[in-house]
Design brief:
The complex is a heterodimer of chains A (363) and B (512).
Chain A lengths: L2 H21 L1 H21 L4 H14 L1 H26 L7 H18 L6 H27 L3 H21 L32 H19 L1 H11 L1 H6 L4 H28 L10 H11 L4 H25 L4 H17 L2 H10 L6
Helix pairs in contact in A: 2-3, 2-13, 2-14, 3-4, 3-13, 4-8, 4-11, 4-12, 4-13, 5-6, 5-7, 5-11, 5-12, 6-7, 6-11, 8-9, 8-11, 8-13, 9-11, 12-13, 13-14
Chain B lengths: L12 E12 L2 E12 L3 E5 L6 H8 L7 E6 L2 E2 L5 H6 L2 E4 L11 H8 L8 H15 L15 H12 L6 E5 L7 H16 L3 E6 L2 H7 L2 E6 L2 E7 L5 H9 L12 H4 L3 E11 L5 E11 L3 E5 L6 H8 L8 E6 L2 E2 L3 H6 L2 E4 L3 H5 L6 H4 L4 H7 L7 H14 L16 H12 L7 E5 L7 H16 L3 E6 L2 H7 L2 E6 L2 E3 L8 H8 L5
Parallel strand pairs in B: 3-8, 3-9, 6-7, 7-8, 13-18, 13-19, 16-17, 17-18
Antiparallel strand pairs in B: 1-2, 1-4, 4-5, 9-10, 11-12, 11-14, 14-15, 19-20
Classes of the chains: A mainly alpha (363), B alpha/beta (512).
Chain lengths: 363, 512
Amino acid sequence: MSTAGDATRAEIRNGASFASRLGFAAPALVAGGLAIGLTALFAAAAGADPARAIGSLLSGSVGSGASLATTLLRAGPLLLTGIGVMLAFRSGVFNVGAEGQLLIGALAATAVGTRLGAWPGQVVLVLLAGAVGGALWAAIAAWLRARRQVNEVITTILLNFVALYLVSWAVAGPLQESGRTYPQSDPFPDPAMLWRVPPGTRLHFGLVLALLAAIGAGVLLSRTATGLRLRAAGLNPAAARLAGFPVGRDLLLAFTLSGALAGVAGAIEVAGVTGRLYERISTGTGYTAIAVALLGGLRSGGVLLAALFFAALATGASAMERSAGVSAVLALAVQGATILIVAITNRMSWTGLAASSGDRDGT
Amino acid sequence: MGRPQSSADVSAPLLEATGLRKRFGPVTALEGVDFACAAGEVHALLGENGAGKSTLASLITGLVRPDGGEMRWRGESAVWRSAGQARGEGISMVHQHFMLVPTLSIAENVALARRDLGLLDRERLHAEVRTLAAERRVDIGDPSRRIEDLAVGEQQRVEILKALVVPPALLVLDEPTAVLVPSEVRDLFSLLRSLVDGGTAIVIVTHKLAEVEALADRVTVLRRGRLVGTGPASDFDASALARLMVGERTRTSVAGGDAAARAGAVVLEARGLSWTDRSGGRRLDDVSLAVREGEILVVAGVEGNGQSELAAALAGERAEGLEGEVKLCGRSIASPAEARAAGLAVVPADRRRDGLVSELALWENLLLARDRIESAAPRGWLRPSEQRASARASLEEFHVRPADPDLPAAALSGGNQQRLVLARELSREGLRAVVAATPTRGLDLVATEGVHDRIRGLARGGAAVLVFSTDLDEVEALADRILVLFRGRIVVPEAARPERAVVGRLMAGVAA
């Protein structure tokens, strides 16, 4: 019939396949380049030597074994929470409560790690406690959304504060160290700590878990019937309902799974890095996770790269402060500016979000 | 009966268009349409959904530009580059979907249409809007009220007042009564009449025949993008208009009618379905019907008489406040999931909204039915390569072009999206019942025949089939039995398969 129409469709198809095969990496790669350029610019504006600033940013984030390890350790929780946010957003659930879910996960993990003695294999239960804690915390908002039509953006944000104060209370109360000196928990006993992978380094098994979660979430969404149902509900809830899909149940599933991943992120932070629960165990990881998920185009591979990028930027910034005399606050400016520019130049992830957040309950 | 008249006999036309043509991609929305309207008269633009009346309204008001034809405004050749330009020339439009900011007050919304109103001085603004409303005789009440607190009819009056801030020479209203309850319709009509008495020309886009009788001086009927009748409203009675709207083509293949031989037990049943929308409009009024095994029941009716509400209810949706019961194979149905599980296939009226997910690939869209996804992935694992292969076969069988399973549904034209939904719903195994709303809308004749054949085949195979149709040809081609839906009520013709003239009159609400 119309060859012009067919040609257009072919273009659309090529566009789609390009985006699905390569596109996921593009935003994070562009962001990397942008960050370097912006750092030079900002450093020069702040009166420092741009070349030196960039040098220390790079060497301080990926330039040595030690800095690379720090970057990876930061990337772990970012990846887990970012994947959680991705799962939620793709399913039409605007879960912005990864921060609270992470905190409750850390809290539950600490309870199991420091209050139930020490026994072989304890770390498995610690991780499980983190997952269950995060999932239950998310389930509150999920239940309110599914049964009471309460907007989850509001509930999850508010629950973040509740979680923060719960942790504050716990580390000065029931979970406080035996010495009762500082607002922190007892140290985790050895069997409650994550295995070092590879042994002898600071890296731990939690990073492997994060990578598995990213792969698993990608497989779940693209290769399973459940994933197709979740995506359909996220993109067009009315059609999903009419298809006879259990949209209410699927919403609960996506929400709690998202919370569980954030909870595990909290667990691997206490059981893999700090070995204790502090009041300020998370420095906004759950919020950065939203940027990670969006910059990653809501695709597993993209989220992985975005998590590494944000982790490297944060690690490199502290190195830059030490050696080039540029304030680490500058990294925040670079982070913000990078997200903005990527968001403006690459609308994909954001339009995807708009599609998934709009008209969710179309009844 | 409407003989197409030349528009030359309109006294001093304000707007005169000849040979208007508009295409959207491969779809011809308008072809060679003439249109004229004069000051001080109401011109009704009548037609089914998709007939091209909204496109014509958009051309007149500068929202879209014609691909061909000529337009003259006050006797001079005019090409609108934008809606703003048309507005400047005195052409205003009241859209079907209100362009109001719900969280702002009436006065603030009106001020948005007229920038010289003092936004900062609230008292002065309210006084000015009150004066404006009094001058234009639009009753809006207290202008400090917020839009979101108003009834739909009140919101519409605000929208009309916005259009009248600078008195237009021509006011176009797109389906203005679609959302109104009868008392609001009366108020709207008296408002429009007072405007016409003041010399304004009014074009009202509608598919409701009663409105033409109540309001219009002239009428133009479009069908499938073409002009099928125009002239003084007094030349047409309701049944003539109904015939013009739905068409009078004769067709060779007429089937059906032998259902009595095969009709068995009742499969799909509705009892006492009633539903009132938020603004108080009674969309469904005590609807009861039953479809038997092997039978095709066609519910005929002009769009907007409760079809989409009834179709949704039969698909298992329990809208808030829905009364009555839907039963499938004797079991009461409370959700689409239950309806699907009981073997129901659904072709929704609005397929873009309810029938597919534009961003997903065609093969994924073919799995968007509970039983389909369960049989495709019995242990939960999709096998995309297998699914693509079977999707390709299915797409080819239903002539979806292009039959490429990896394309997103958004890349298909409207007719092909329709075929996609049909491919999913009508080729399922274990079907007990089918609810299909205007299943052939957007399809050409050959494809329509194909779909009709398949629907008959499903009925022969024992499925209970219910088809909503606005097209008399389709009604005749498919029906074993005909019911008419008018203003939310079921009208039962005396005969099981009444003559098409009788059906047309019932659809128009004229006593048979």
